[in-house]
User: Fold this.
Amino acid sequence: MTASALTRPGERDRLSTKLSELDWRLIALLSVVAMTGTAMLYSIAGGQWQPWAIDHLLRFGAMLLVMIGLAMVHPKWFFRAAYPLYGLVVVMVLMIEFTPLGYEPAGAGAKNWLNLGFIRIQPAEFVKLGLVLALARWYHDHTAQEARWSWKLIFPVAMIGVPFLLVAKQPDLGSAMIIGLTGAAVMFVAGLSWKVIAAGGVAALVTIPPFVMFGMHEYQRNRVLTFLSPESDPSGTGYNIIQSKIALGSGGLLGRGYGLGSQSQLEFLPERETDFIFSTVAEEFGFVGSFALLACYIAIVLIALRIASLAHSHFARISAAGMTAFFAIFVLINGAMVMGLAPVVGVPMPLLSYGGSSMMTIMIGFGLVLSTRVHRYAELPKGYGLV
Amino acid sequence: MSSEPSIFFSDVNERQGSFLRRTFVVGGLTAIGVTALTVRLAQLQVVQAEEYATLASQNQFNFRLVPPPRGRILDRNGVVIAGNRPSFRVLVVRDETKDLDQTLDLLGRLLPDTVDRRRSIIRDVNAAPRFAPVPVKTDLTWEEFARVNLYANELPGVMADMNEARYYPFGGSFAHVVGYVAKPSDRDVQAYRDRNEEVPQILYNPGFRIGRTGVEKALDEDLRGVEGGNRVEVDARGRVVAEDVGGSRPAVPGKEIVLTLDADVQNRALEVFGEEAGGAVVMDVRTGDILCMVSAPSFDPNLFVNGIPSSMYRPLADYERRPLLDKAIYGTFAPGSTFKPVTGLAALKRGANPERRIVCNGGYYLGRRFACHATHGSQNMREAIKNSCNVYFMTLGVEMGPDAIAEAAREMGFGQEFDIGIDGQREGLVPDREWRRRNPVRGDPMWYPGETPSYSIGQGALTVNALQLATYTARLANGRKAVLPRLIKSIDGVEQGGDRAFADLPYDPAHLQVLREGMEMVTDVGGTGFRNSQLGLGAVRMAGKTGTAQSRNYGSGSRSGAGRPWAQKDHNLFIAYAPIDNPRYAVSVIVQHGGLGGGTAGAPRAREIMKVVLLKDDEIRQRLEREGFAETPEDPGAHESDSLALNAAPAQAAAPAAEPAGPRPYLPASPQ
Assistant:
């Protein structure tokens, strides 16, 4: 039964209606990617469920339920929660910086975890969610003209800038970059003037090189310089990129076979269960397998954008598109990184890489997208429910 | 709180239109990005696939070198002189130990002596790659080996295995000529670099040894063999995951070297030296084969295989009798009276009559008096050799001049190095006028006649080594050919120089006969070497020549060595050949600071060595069986005053020196 503008009042609020309104294509594609991740984690553990595959599978199962649950929630609740949530995540990031609760995992090089006693979380992940919602909330209340170019844009810029700078200071450059790009993507879809975009692009090109040379920590600069010429230090910082390229290239057209990739099985590939898991797929399933996986990703992005464009409320549109852009940024940056097209920045491949925080953020984001789909006719008045 | 549609038419459409356009752009950009990734994937996985597949297999597979068994060194009869023995050892892999300190604590309980070396073990382990096994202790006893294996499960990262170690079963007997092996040092690595050659990886293998001295060094390349390789699959940390049997190649053992030496003769020679220092060489007078080349005192080369501790090395290096020095080919000495036949030969070649009689009245006068050790009266050449008369040969020498003596000396084998396949020879010095011109005394390049008398009797600047003395004796005994010594009999079954043609000696065989007759008289009744050169083998008798070389200037003091410190005594030499009637073997013995009188220290040793040589010769043995051991009537009680029995160390005294069955395996204790 299709819930349309012509359905009877109350019909759309019924749970069965809402469930039938879910986009099962999207859920199926997300599941395919997560199952591929599970299979790869099983493979690189030498055919063992422990230590990664089982966790990955269970997390995905749990987050699938959370996602469907969130899809049932009316966007007005996200709308109301947007600013408080944003405030909360900014406070959490501040707590890392200014209270003893923040802690740095051994060897991580960045103080980016928050130890709340009962749970340890990486607030940077939730910053992205809070930021997208808060920006969507702000744009919902403003006109197209204001979104294009006006002094009021100071507010969204500040909303992006505060967490960006805090996270960059941790220093978790990868997350900061994602925050910045996600925020920029939201501003873009909200209608930022092309002239401003061009000016921003030029400004970025001018400021990045000096920042790399003088504003970065030693290891961060090394990563960037290594990316530019990985062969200069094959056993040191260039090792990751070189080994990843070997894994990809040795996969060939059809791959070396499931469980038979020497690069990943023998641990030549670094961080093979997280950042470089795409290389494992490419090694074991070849060009055919990795292309199919990329096809899944682009299909997910296009379906999600389509969902965003169908929403009636501006808040839902912007937030769904923002979440999708956030997902797409992950895919593109991680893909470029493992293929040696971008510096190694510690960005996981969504749903494929092992890691709870990343999966949680992504799945909550798609819960929002699905909620947008289910409640695509929902209207949210301007200034509605400030709290 | 209604979710019913509420439509705003004013601004909404503009926002929505803009959003749709921008969403379209975002989708497009993502598609472009993914397309770019796909193109990159195609470039890596399709276009460059082969290149990266090669790199991946280079990552995956490694060659583990397997040291080849070093070639054995055998004596002429196939007795192993240098071989390999299994050695149990304990290795530690740092990567697999949980805690190196704790592991070493536990290991210390099993192998108490590792506790003392703990610091150096930790240093070695830390210097090696994390995954490389480092030997902690080698040459474990079976009990220790079993104990370590028993507790292996409780000692992660500790393993016990077996490899091959170089072993010299005769200890010191062959220490100088065969030499020893040792761990390759930085200098060996540098030597390859200096030659611009690639350093063989096998040099870094903990079990590999390189030849340091003697045959081990000279024929190192042959003995080394070719290392094998185990193709193994490794992980990123270099740990072996699996072995690829198909891709492995076995090690090729080193070549087997057969020497001309005879282990029994060699052992007996070192035995008879006892505590005395010196060198002895035995040579086959027909083929030039060296049956024995020994230097005493010796040392145990097994000590050097795993690195000798300095507490053991220092005494060896500091001992005044120089165990580490090869006195058979490196040590050079004045030949003394053993040189007199050379002077005689030179004179005969220049037309001297061997029957010419020269009167010895106890001294020769040329500016000053050159003493003779007795007043011999009128003698011909044979008698002069028998009596070792100085006056006779001084007279001949001064008449001929030094160049004639030097020529004969060189022709008989002095003043040169022989190609015997090993390093470490010193050619000594045969002086002549030309030499004096190049080495003037206080700026005076003139050879004065006053130098010749000493030269004529084997003193002065003249120095020779034991190998040259043996070669010279062999040539005298051979009578026709200028035989050349040979040490390496075969390499890997290929005969080395067995078909050598020797040049003729530039002497009338009749002249050589005169000198041999003189030497026969030396060992006969009334000769200087009579008492100590009776073989007791019936008609098989030995001819020889005694020699005493001054090791210092006596001035006006007594020549007697008795009561003098060792280092001030004269060198004692003896050369001999046997059998007299059909010369087969020549021997030279130099006893460093052995004391006055060639018959006392050199002759008995030469006799004992010669006896073993003769008894090991089948032809001689058959002859003895045919003719019996009946002693010639002229030598009653020849063994009663056996100076060897008197001089020798208690160990030798215990073994009856006259016992014909002298040879037996013998491991001399290392000098303390």
Q: What stands out?
A: Residues 128 and 142 of chain A are 21 Å apart (CA to CA). Chain A has two domains: 30-72+228-376, 82-216. Residues 82-216 of chain A form one domain. The longest strand of chain A covers residues 113-115.
